[in-house]
Amino acid sequence: MDALSEVLQDFRLSGVNYGRCELRHPWSIAFPQQPLLRFHFVSQGPCWIHTEEQGWQELHDGDLVLLPQGIAHRLASAPNVMGDSLKGCQVTKLGSNVCEVVREGTGATSTLFCGSMTLGACALSPLISLMPPIIKGCDVAGNDPIVGPLLAAMTVEATQPQMGSATILSRMADLLTARLIRCWVNCTGASTTGWLAAIRDPHIGRVLAAMHRNPGHNWTLESLAGLAGQSRSIFAERFSAVLGEGAAHYLARLRMQLAGELLAQNGMSVAEVATRLGYESEASFARAFKRITNVSPGIVRRTISGRMDMDFGF
Predict the structure, then answer these.
(1) Cβ–Cβ contacts within 10 Å for residue 134, how many?
(2) How many Cα atoms sit within 13 Å of 74 on the Cβ side?
(3) Are residues 43 and 155 in contact, defined by beta-carbon separation less than 8 angstroms?
(4) For residue 75, which of 101, 40, 43 has the smallest C-alpha distance?
(5) What are 77-110's pLDDT values in tens digits?
(6) Are strands 55-59 and 47-51 parallel, antiparallel or unpaired?
(7) SS3 sequence of the chain
(8) Which residues, given as ranges, of the chain have pLDDT below 70?
(9) Edge-to-edge strands of the sheet including 28-31?
């Protein structure tokens, strides 16, 4: 297995919340920046999306838009509709992480299925940061024969809701999002620098895969160079040239990304995380964490990370 495949095999998406929406024109909802992936599936329009970088774009029936970095954006039934229509919607909780959002009125009805997801492995954080701010399902459907049928199946499920439709839609959305991300990786052209170039490098890729597989191991420059099959000097120079930082700094950032995930989402104590990531003491881990993230691990642990109110349940 090549290094990229090894990292991607740990690709797990976990849905945080979903919302099935029936909104009567005119409507407009602003979505703030968040640390999670976000998607919107349009079963029936009208629907437009606005981002600061790309302005207004029309979304058509049966299309899905993925926002890998969860950037701030707005959905609306038309570009000239502003305000916050969510305040006038009836929000009904259908399950632990699914809600129904209804806006009454006399205008045309837009039917949407929206959601937020978190990655199950911090190993993919570098990959997500490289992706474009918006990916539309219709744009990649030609490169993946599964995407088109999945979008069609979601349209049927959303327009003809039956018992368990919300659960089925959420599982379809998880699968479709994973396919879109994998398709983007496969279609991305070759580059000589950056994370994708590094993970595809026959020497550096083996090292990255090992780091991500076991970030708490007592890695040294000698052991990493040995994995790469290179001398220490050649390995260090090549690693920095491709990734723009040294191996030690990359490993420290990787450990702190994982630490933040374990502290905020898994509820582990600071001491447990320190031990898991190979630190000899809680104090040395806390110093390293604050040096890289600018906050103490205790503050992160006390903060509920990455979950939105069910009032914003999509």
Answers:
(1) 18
(2) 20
(3) yes
(4) 40
(5) 999 998 888 888 988 887 777 888 999 988 999 9
(6) antiparallel
(7) CCHHHHHHCCCCEEEEEEEEEEEECCCEEEECCCCCEEEEEEEECCEEEEECCCEEEEECCCEEEEECCCCCEEEECCCCCCCCHHHHCEEEECCCCEEEEEECCCCCEEEEEEEEEEECCHHHHHHHHHCCCCEEHHHHHHHCCCHHHHHHHHHHHHHCCCCCHHHHHHHHHHHHHHHHHHHHHHHCCCCCCCHHHHHHCCCHHHHHHHHHHCCCCCCCHHHHHHHHCCCHHHHHHHHHHHHCCCHHHHHHHHHHHHHHHHHHHCCCCHHHHHHHCCCCCHHHHHHHHHHHHCCCHHHHHHCCCCCCCHHHCC
(8) 1, 8-15, 120-124, 161, 189-190, 265-266, 303-314
(9) 28-31, 73-76, 47-51, 55-59
Please tell me the distance from the alpha carbon of residue 27 to that of residue 65, in angstroms, as a whole number. Answer: 19
∠ CA 51-57-61, rounded to 5°? 125
pTM of the entire structure? 0.74
| 176 neighbors 201 (Cβ within 8 angstroms) | no
Residue with tokens 């290179």: 230
User: How many residues are there in the chain?
Assistant: 314
